[in-house]
Amino acid sequence: MSCTILILYFFLKLASSDNNTQDGFLFDGFFKLGGSAEVNNSNMSSHVIFADSGLSEAGQVFYNRTFKFKNSTTAPVFSFSTTFIFAVVSNDPEFSGHGLAFAISPSNGIPGALPNQYLGLFNASNNGEISNHVVAVELDTDQDFQFEDRDDNHLGIDINGLVSVKSATAGYFDEHGHFKELYLNSGKRIQVWVEYESLNQQLNVTIHPIKKPKPMLPLLSLKRDLSPYFFEFMYVGFSSASGSKCSHYILGWSFRMNGQAEEINLSTLPEIPGVTRDNEDDAGDGYRKVQKMLAVVLSLIGGIFLLLLIFGALMISRRRKFIRVLEDWEVLYGPHRFSYKDLFIATQGFRDRQLLGKGGFGRVYRGILPFSNVQIAVKRISHDSSQGMREFVAEIATIGRLRHPNLVRLLGYCRRKNELFLVYDYMPNGSLDKFLYRVPNCMLDWKQRFKIIKDVASALFYLHQQWVQVIIHRDIKPANVLIDNEMNARLGDFGLARLCDHGNDPQTSHVAGTPGYIDPEIVQRGKSTTCTDIYAFGVFMLEVTCGRKPVDPRTSPEKVVLIDWVMNCWDRGAILETVDCRLGNDYVSHEAELVLKLGLLCSHPVAAARPNISSVVQFLDGAAQLPENVSSIIKSRDSSDGSSQGGVGKDEFPSGNVSIASLTFTESFASDGR
Ligand SMILES: *[C@@H]1O[C@H](CO)[C@@H](O)[C@H](O)[C@H]1NC(C)=O
Ligand SMILES: *[C@@H]1O[C@H](CO)[C@@H](O)[C@H](O)[C@H]1NC(C)=O
Ligand SMILES: *[C@@H]1O[C@H](CO)[C@@H](O)[C@H](O)[C@H]1NC(C)=O
Ligand SMILES: *[C@@H]1O[C@H](CO)[C@@H](O)[C@H](O)[C@H]1NC(C)=O
Ligand SMILES: *[C@@H]1O[C@H](CO)[C@@H](O)[C@H](O)[C@H]1NC(C)=O
Ligand SMILES: *[C@@H]1O[C@H](CO)[C@@H](O)[C@H](O)[C@H]1NC(C)=O
Ligand SMILES: *[C@@H]1O[C@H](CO)[C@@H](O)[C@H](O)[C@H]1NC(C)=O
Ligand SMILES: *[C@@H]1O[C@H](CO)[C@@H](O)[C@H](O)[C@H]1NC(C)=O
InterPro entries in the record, alphabetically (predicted)? Predict the structure, then answer.
């Protein structure tokens, strides 16, 4: 799986093709992103960044000379201007990479940056830091809610971090001032201008199809003094995270300080290997082409109209049948198999506008079933093992029969080639993480939080102990907890992690779950048990009470790992200091204390020390008291575990006394729990 290597192929046709003066250059060479080759132009410097043990890569190519951006450290930034032509060529429209960016950086490469959604510009720990001194224009083809991306086809001005200072859907304003959307990943060649005017301290970004003149109105215009972000000398270049199935190309680039960048000569643009001009040219450009198409289209319309009439009649009769199918008895006897067409219509063709979110397993779309008008959420999962798919579909029969007020109901599924669609009840309020982190003015009060914790505990109790089979959820976290109309919490995504296990490649059958919620013991044993869920639920309880992520690199060092912070505060006798400060004093302190202690107990590094879910439910309901020796058990973690961060624990625990003590402890749970 080779990804995102930013490589330079040089099709330098003429000796004069690179005109480098002191304050600018014109390069009409050819950058390719993806594939593997060596960079062999002395004027460029290229770097490859690996992550996920080599599975994903990002590439950077910088012009290997600095430009003087200001006269002294405090002086204003000079005007500069750059233009380049790029194309995103993808063999699979579903995977068109994360995007690329033009970057101005203090070094001729950005070490330590990450691929994927970080675009090879930043990483989780330095994202947003003023010490980065990186100003970039991102051409983003993937929506990352983490960085508040508006859609999956946008431009953004990024200053020191990936949450854009300003962003807009990709497109341009034509001569009449009408906005025309451009698809960055269409494979067409698109020209970009990034211009900064020193006098007005204004940064403009403009894009347009290469055959159109540069629009008068920029797409993005940011009024800001850039001098705090720039050093005197800076490098300019590109960074990209293209993914394995797509390539990013730069087909010409010019840059100039204190003046307008030289126009790129379109008649000498290099060809992209393997891409024929016909399908990559902007079809809308040629007037004659339009005429030709019009003739074809008109003659087709007649035929299509006739076909539509016939199909329409057929469909209506089919739909009628379909309404009946969703009756209660049908739901009772197991999940329904939906047709792809119905889901396609319901979600308006899986349009991005219908996208509710993206998870580890796939994208979730909102939809309305035709005729019955039932609102649904459709999860779209791709999977390349047909064996795994078969087993998974069999399991859906089980999962689809689970009924509990605190579980999101699985209405049915649909299979199409290597894709699986799961249809769930739609929860208009969205997921819990939205309430915790994303929506500022609908904060949950303590009563709601405590109820959510109890709801999830009750769902887990059902999965672990009340159903005929033990079902391990494997990915408990706020993003998988949905809030219904009455503010009840409902656990979603149960059983999905199994799909991961059925992967046909044992090398990549990784531990399912989300970093921060993964039981450190699972890393040793590689097998999920109900204890794994209890661990994640412990972290979940802490997270809901404290209103912050389990690992938050942005806070002071002693607070980064939530579990450790709560532990330390408890040691100081101030465990309630960790309660979400937004709650003020509006919480019930004995409940908060119970939840925090129970959270620590459940996220104990030694699985045997964790209570089972029925005990947890009893503690939360007040039907049983936490045992007296709970503090010594929880504190034994200090001797057994050094790093709970990211769920990657130490390889061994001093197993002897700790686990024996905890085993006897769990037994005593059972006796005084009932
Ligand atoms: C580079 O281009 C500029 C104008 O575009 C021209 O005046 C200059 O002579 C060129 N320099 C070289 C070294 O070719
Ligand atoms: C590097 O830049 C110099 C000066 O601008 C130019 O003469 C030379 O051809 C360039 N080298 C390559 C390999 O492009
Ligand atoms: C640079 O790469 C091009 C294309 O891959 C190749 O034709 C050329 O010989 C290479 N030049 C050097 C100096 O390696
Ligand atoms: C960048 O240029 C410097 C000298 O100007 C050279 O030593 C270095 O090898 C170049 N780096 C790359 C990656 O070409
Ligand atoms: C920067 O310095 C150069 C010469 O040192 C001078 O010509 C120029 O006007 C200065 N620019 C600004 C914006 O101060
Ligand atoms: C993040 O990037 C910075 C600078 O690019 C680097 O110093 C740091 O080590 C990186 N952090 C991680 C965790 O990779
Ligand atoms: C940026 O765009 C504004 C119009 O929105 C224009 O007035 C200004 O001159 C532009 N600046 C540059 C550097 O192109
Ligand atoms: C672009 O390149 C072609 C072919 O090399 C040349 O004939 C033409 O004059 C160039 N156009 C401009 C504007 O430089």
Answer: ConA-like_dom_sf, Kinase-like_dom_sf, L-type_Lectin-RKs, Lectin_legB_Mn/Ca_BS, Legume_lectin_dom, Prot_kinase_dom, Protein_kinase_ATP_BS, Ser/Thr_kinase_AS
Q: How many CB atoms lie within 10 A of CB 75?
A: 13
Cα separation of 181 and 653, whole Å? 57
For ligand 8, atom 14, the nearest C-alpha belongs to 265
- DSSP of 171-220, one letter per residue? EEE-TTS-EEE--TTSS--EEEEEEEETTTTEEEEEEEETTSPPPSS-SE
Residue 20 Cβ inside 6 Å of ligand 1? The answer reads: no
Which is more confidently placed, 599 or 42? Answer: 599
- Please list the residue range(s) of the chain that carry CATH number 3.30.200.20: 337-426
Ligand 3 pocket (Cβ < 6 Å) reads 9-10, 40
Instruction: Give nearest CA residue, ligand 6 atom 7.
Output: 112
Name the maximum alpha-carbon separation found in the chain. 86
Per-residue pLDDT tens for 193-234? 999 999 999 999 999 999 899 999 999 999 999 999 999 999
pLDDT average, residue stretch 129-135: 93
Q: Which protein residue has the closest C-alpha to ligand 8 atom 5?
A: 268
Residue 475 annotated among the catalytic residues of the structure: yes
Q: Which amino acid is at 75?
A: A
Q: How far is the CA of 235 from the centre of ligand 5 (A)?
A: 20
- C-alpha–C-alpha distance, residues 345 and 272, integer Å: 36
Are the beta carbons of 188 and 283 closer than 8 angstroms? no
Q: Where in the chain is the domain with CATH 1.10.510.10?
A: 429-672
CATH dotted code for 337-426: 3.30.200.20
pTM over 0.70: no
Distance (Å, whole) CA 390 – CA 388: 5
258 within ligand 5 shell (Cβ under 6 A): no
Residues annotated within the binding site for ATP are 379
> Top-level CATH class of 429-672?
mainly alpha
Q: Is 45 in the pocket of ligand 4 (CB under 6 A)?
A: yes
**CATH class of domain segment(s) 43-270:** mainly beta
Q: Give the pLDDT band of residue 324 (cuts 50, 70, 90).
A: very low
Q: What separation, in Å, do the N-terminal and C-terminal C-alpha atoms of the chain show? A: 54
